[in-house]
Amino acid sequence: MNILDKLNELRSLMQAEKISAYYIPTSDFHDSEYVGDYFKGRAWLSGFSGSAGVMVVTLSEACLWTDGRYFIQAEEQLAGTSIQLMKMMEPGVPTVSEYLKQHLQANDVLAFDGRCVSYEAMKEWQQLMPEVVIKTDLDVFDQIWPDRPALPSAKAFLLSDELSGKAMTDKLAAVRESMKQHQADWHLLTTLDDLAWLFNMRGDDVSYSPVVLSYALISMDEVMLFVDETKFDEAAKAFFKENHVKLLPYFEVYSKIETISGKIMLNGKRVNSRLVQLCHEIIDLDNPTTLMKAIKNETELTNTRNAHIKDGVAVSKFMIWLKEAVQHETITEISAADKLEALRREQKDFLELSFTTIAGYKEHAALMHYSATADSDVELKPEGMLLVDSGGTYLDGTTDITRTFVLGPVSDEIKRHYTAVLKGMLRLSMAKFLHGCIGINLDILARGPLWEMGIDYRCGTGHGVGHILNVHEGPHDIRWRARPNTISAVFEPGMIVTNEPGVYIEGSHGIRIENELITKCSETNEYGTFLAFETITMAPIDLDAVLADQLSDSERNFLNAYHAQVYTKISPFLNEGEKAMLKHYTRAI
Amino acid sequence: MNILDKLNELRSLMQAEKISAYYIPTSDFHDSEYVGDYFKGRAWLSGFSGSAGVMVVTLSEACLWTDGRYFIQAEEQLAGTSIQLMKMMEPGVPTVSEYLKQHLQANDVLAFDGRCVSYEAMKEWQQLMPEVVIKTDLDVFDQIWPDRPALPSAKAFLLSDELSGKAMTDKLAAVRESMKQHQADWHLLTTLDDLAWLFNMRGDDVSYSPVVLSYALISMDEVMLFVDETKFDEAAKAFFKENHVKLLPYFEVYSKIETISGKIMLNGKRVNSRLVQLCHEIIDLDNPTTLMKAIKNETELTNTRNAHIKDGVAVSKFMIWLKEAVQHETITEISAADKLEALRREQKDFLELSFTTIAGYKEHAALMHYSATADSDVELKPEGMLLVDSGGTYLDGTTDITRTFVLGPVSDEIKRHYTAVLKGMLRLSMAKFLHGCIGINLDILARGPLWEMGIDYRCGTGHGVGHILNVHEGPHDIRWRARPNTISAVFEPGMIVTNEPGVYIEGSHGIRIENELITKCSETNEYGTFLAFETITMAPIDLDAVLADQLSDSERNFLNAYHAQVYTKISPFLNEGEKAMLKHYTRAI
């Protein structure tokens, strides 16, 4: 079936059901960022494989919205499919809501699977288009996708308190404290990373995200966890029983929620609209677990530092291998990514990659979230640069690191761009700022050196990172524009955030350098509490494209001190030959 | 009458009227920032002379709220008055609303003059304390302030199009365009600077602010301007008549508004609650004139640059005089301020100072908005520093400039602080940034060098400046924390903003360096439109406290280029001796 056939199939079904527009998010029942294969109907239907994108199909048009990270990739993958690319946030491009409002008349039917659409989105459309009929119970992929994958059934396990740093019972007590504060009788929790954090459980139900498909309903004296209990071993089931957590079948939440009386606290931006429609009375608030989870405890921080040393050993070995091997061996983007994965797998307590490795050579690196396919894969040569954005989840933490490796001669322009990216990354790493700042206050530190050159990167500068969890998490981030309807959280000690400015020149090159930072207390005085960052990513930043004379003294000193630390922490895990190379790659400049 | 007597007088009146709490803002009928003498009841009652502060008096307590600029001054002036200082934004200090909520019981009466309190504030209190009786028609100062000044009756005049750059009729057309867009039948405008801008009129009804007490009601075919028409000459009256602007008595707006049918567009945050209560139907929006006024036209920009040269000549002459004369003459804070005023008055088309000159020597400069009085005035010595924040309004524009002059030896700590302030001021001046940025994105450029030292200044970094108008205007600003319920405007080409980081060490010293910047288009490319700043303030920055080795190359180059420009523009207006000194003060470092 090609894309046009699939669209025809969908439109036949729409005509039969008298539907004018069918909306397809990239979403599971839990508003997860990455979704299991069962939920990848948009990718199957459109051929666009990026992780972010939503579609609207009408009887005459099909449109796909995605963000700046994916413009180039989506243009290529949608060519010839009849699907129009809608570049989000670009001038003149309607939002999904604006598009629907323009294209739907009174009594037209807009349909979607309400379990995959948030309550907020549905509410917005109801208010915007009161004359349009909204149908929320149609999952077309059940009918038009012949070999749709099954829902996942991976095994799940519990984290010991030594790994989580905080017992489930303590976390439940904190959630109940928040419920009291907001006078809630129940809390409905549906976001998978919040559930994994709260119950100290991990699984493998979504690629790269060690979560367990589940829902929870919590009152002051009851906890119901809706999950396929066969995923757990007997010890885990006994633990839940002992601690009064009742396990109920995964889908039973939809019938249970109807029977609940009292005020239900939930996050209407994240809970699916079907569930909210079944609630009698809600208190719409951010999940308290989101902030609790973002502020890592001392155990999580200590373990995460350790995960970054293991991850840094893998990346350092990869760098040493790559820069030498590319001179005489046949290496491609995919084989390089495989090599790096193999090096990570050698590390103790490695669980899985934290996301699909991005290994983009030369102009491929300009595609911000490029993922090589058999078709696109190219051989690396001893020239230009390879951008590698990758990470691992270990039993002690999750990592996210980008390095752009210099494989041979690069142009002066590339060196200027590389140096500006590095300057931005360093300036943000060195920041000291008053408590109360959000990412919008800090973004210009990383982005400024590029803006000075008239260059921007069309994405944020940084995101939170989960602990043995999702590689992207909130509620804090670093970006220059506020997200609509969302207030980024104030930085608190214990929050981890990435620092990843970049340059993306279409058809030419892409550069990104990414370290992870822990937010720490720097000093408290009459002005308030000053915070600063501790860099925890431990791998060399390729010096071969750095124009050292363009670094300020403080930038240069910080870089040299960082590299000295990388050598100290990573070299004990290397052989003599590798040590010598690491010494060179971490040389003071 | 001392403060305690005045409070007793007020409380007797409150008891007679059965009032539990009387609220006293620092506000006129137009929510002006600086108010005429008639409206300075708070200063008269409390003895606190700062420009910002509100009071609540109950039968047993009296409290005064002010912001960080005034903490030190207020502490001194309120000592022994029984009035408690409430430090706004400090941890644990209740807001006015929280205080009222805590102290008022059901059926208690909260009273104030509704003409001096915004609709927003009154609405908030009604919602917060539905059980409290709110009385809005009591102006106690009519009864307890024996020698209350009269309302001002200064002459007013019209600006020619050569001075305003845009005819009143064009401005009215733009306002009507906005009214159409918002489906408004009427627009009620009450903010004096907006009125002055819209009608191209200027006057002298508020100290330092060349505005005219007035209100306007505008429909698609009518314009009513409520103003004491004796303020205008016959030509002005004829001009208004020709252009169908009907002049009506100032207070008549209160009876007229009751007769209006149709939707009235107004800014509920700024219009007084008495007026809004008299409206039948409102559309609550920011005044369209606020943004229009902030984006200066080419005439205004050209004229403003010229005003800054004249102002720079006065400040440069002052600096040359001061640094020499302090070695052997008797100079005090007040006499120095007088000298500077005299130098400004020598300049062509000078109208008045744009605010009270702040001339603070040594530790007085730590009081952010210090204004010397006969009691506080001190003699300057050839040591330490004098902070001078001042400005003028000329027929071609309004200025605001701060320089901190080195009068003799200063400590190494002062030099470190001075250099950090300078670095911040320069970094912000050099910023290049994408259109879409607000001040919150940029603030850390100015504040960062101080934060690095664990120092903060408890105020914003910059504000808009009016054109022959208020020295403080919005809707843009530069600050790191969002103001509650206010969204700062995105920077647009043509906006003027101040750049004034500082260090304030209580009991020791204060440093502020302030230039004004024009926002300009830098380049437009595939990433969007990049903006940058043009520095228009033209006076030397005292180099005698600069630690040159702490400036980066780009900071040093920018400073040297700025000083070269100051010399080029200012020296033609100086005598030979002054030129030589200016050459020295603008030397490259």
UniProtKB/TrEMBL annotation, chains A, B:
<dbReference type="InterPro" id="IPR029149">
    <property type="entry name" value="Creatin/AminoP/Spt16_N"/>
</dbReference>
<dbReference type="GO" id="GO:0005737">
    <property type="term" value="C:cytoplasm"/>
</dbReference>
<dbReference type="Pfam" id="PF01321">
    <property type="entry name" value="Creatinase_N"/>
</dbReference>
<dbReference type="Pfam" id="PF00557">
    <property type="entry name" value="Peptidase_M24"/>
</dbReference>
<feature type="domain" description="Creatinase N-terminal">
    <location>
        <begin position="7"/>
        <end position="132"/>
    </location>
</feature>
<dbReference type="Pfam" id="PF16188">
    <property type="entry name" value="Peptidase_M24_C"/>
</dbReference>
<keyword id="KW-0031">Aminopeptidase</keyword>
<comment type="similarity">
    <text>Belongs to the peptidase M24B family.</text>
</comment>
<dbReference type="InterPro" id="IPR033740">
    <property type="entry name" value="Pept_M24B"/>
</dbReference>
<dbReference type="GO" id="GO:0070006">
    <property type="term" value="F:metalloaminopeptidase activity"/>
</dbReference>
<dbReference type="InterPro" id="IPR032416">
    <property type="entry name" value="Peptidase_M24_C"/>
</dbReference>
<dbReference type="InterPro" id="IPR036005">
    <property type="entry name" value="Creatinase/aminopeptidase-like"/>
</dbReference>
<keyword id="KW-0645">Protease</keyword>
<dbReference type="GO" id="GO:0046872">
    <property type="term" value="F:metal ion binding"/>
</dbReference>
<keyword id="KW-0479">Metal-binding</keyword>
<keyword id="KW-0378">Hydrolase</keyword>
<protein>
    <submittedName>
        <fullName>Xaa-Pro aminopeptidase</fullName>
    </submittedName>
</protein>
<feature type="domain" description="Peptidase M24 C-terminal">
    <location>
        <begin position="530"/>
        <end position="589"/>
    </location>
</feature>
<dbReference type="InterPro" id="IPR000994">
    <property type="entry name" value="Pept_M24"/>
</dbReference>
<feature type="domain" description="Peptidase M24">
    <location>
        <begin position="304"/>
        <end position="518"/>
    </location>
</feature>
<dbReference type="InterPro" id="IPR000587">
    <property type="entry name" value="Creatinase_N"/>
</dbReference>
<dbReference type="Pfam" id="PF16189">
    <property type="entry name" value="Creatinase_N_2"/>
</dbReference>
<dbReference type="InterPro" id="IPR050422">
    <property type="entry name" value="X-Pro_aminopeptidase_P"/>
</dbReference>
